[in-house]
Amino acid sequence: MYTYEQLACADRLFGSSYYIFDSEKLKENYRKINQAFASRYPRFLIGYSYKTNYLPQLCALINKLGGYAEVVSRLEYDLALKIGVDPSRIIYNGPVKEAADIEAALHGKSLLNLDSFYEIELVKRYCEAYPERMVSVGLRVNFDLQENGVNPLQDGREASRFGFCVENGAFQRAVEELSRIPSLRISGLHGHFSSDRSLAVYEKIAGKLCQLARVCLPETVEYIDVGGGIYGELPPSFPIQNTPTFDDYAEAVCRVMHAEMAAYGHVPLLILEPGIAMAANAFSFVCKVIDVKDVRGQTFVLVDGSVHNVKPTMHRHNLPHQIVRRQNGGEPGVFHVVGYTCMERDCLLHQVTGKLPRAGDYFIFENTGAYTMVFNPPFIKGRPPIVQRCENEWRELRGRETLAQFFSDQLYRFEPLSVSKIR
Ligand SMILES: *Cc1c(COP(=O)(O)O)cnc(C)c1O
What we know:
Elements (H helix, E strand, L loop, with lengths): L3 H11 L2 E5 L1 H16 L5 E6 L6 H10 L2 E4 L2 H10 L6 E3 L6 H9 L3 E4 L2 H13 L5 E8 L21 E2 L4 H10 L4 E7 L8 H18 L6 E3 L20 H17 L6 E4 L3 H4 L3 E13 L2 E6 L3 H4 L10 E4 L7 E7 L8 E9 L6 E4 L20 E5 L2 E6 L4 H4 L17
Parallel strand pairs: 1-17, 2-3, 2-10, 3-4, 4-5, 5-6, 6-7, 6-8, 8-9, 9-10, 12-14
Antiparallel strand pairs: 1-11, 11-12, 11-16, 13-16, 14-15, 17-18
The structure holds pyridoxal-5'-phosphate.
């Protein structure tokens, strides 16, 4: 993928650990996902999940490709605006929104999906303050995904905490409360779940949202938003294999959409909110081998990177990786790759069998674009740079965090605390 000389050149420019963004890969993901769904359903759009990776130039590229911004906080909402996204092309989700956030979203005609009853109160207040304005909101829906006693939620969770529960009547009550506001209509339903990402889950989500829309919002439904969470394309060496393709997901969702909506006479917009599938394989992380040491038969390869850079969730799977060696060779052996922090848990790779790396070699970790950069804690060292290789040159997209940025004196105060004298 990259030669030793290319990585050594980047090392001289940016330091010995950095992310590489492959924007062509991102464009390819966008094109493939869009093609899979748009070829099967007449009205489709992608809302890219900002929290997965909100590198500004990535978000701007999504905007240019025609994707909407899917945000879950005011910080992300304001980032989208700063990048130049039209507010009507922002999907505003997330559990915590303040009155000012609701106001900004409604003013901007963003697609606002409500998650809890307190938000309905805020929307009511907005509508009372601006009775002449027509307002649209969507509702995030929560229903049981279990099928034949199998629970597809991640980590075996009993229930999701997001959205209005259908089974206990909360959803119905939310619809009724909102229907009493004359200037408001409920324009969409949203159903994102952290699940096993199976086709059956997406069939169920699409089916349930359509049924609820037909029964509860027959006049007003404009969009059905099935959320994100689909698998992206995974390299052959990835620990998980045989995952559904974009075409598989599109086929499952669009078949349900057509079947459910055929009787209904109008075609709502279908929204998908991919994060991982868009960003994960568009980034790799490079770090340099600093030293190799033996401890009672265990070999530790120390790198200038951290588990926080490659898999902040610290799962046990080894990510796909390559070693780019300064010189050929290396003794065969078994080794662990460990990072710069002072935690024993900081293990990037566990029990790798192969030729031992040597100081000065580089590791490239693939598929590190999702929930990595956004999760890098300000812990022990500044965040690494993000770079791009373009026309045989390296370009910096984010710099290496300096002391002045890490301990910004606009954030921190450096004058000594005034403390009462110790007697
Ligand atoms: C996190 C999130 C997504 C994206 O999920 P991925 O697993 O990264 O695809 C989409 N929609 C909502 C509401 C989310 O919270």
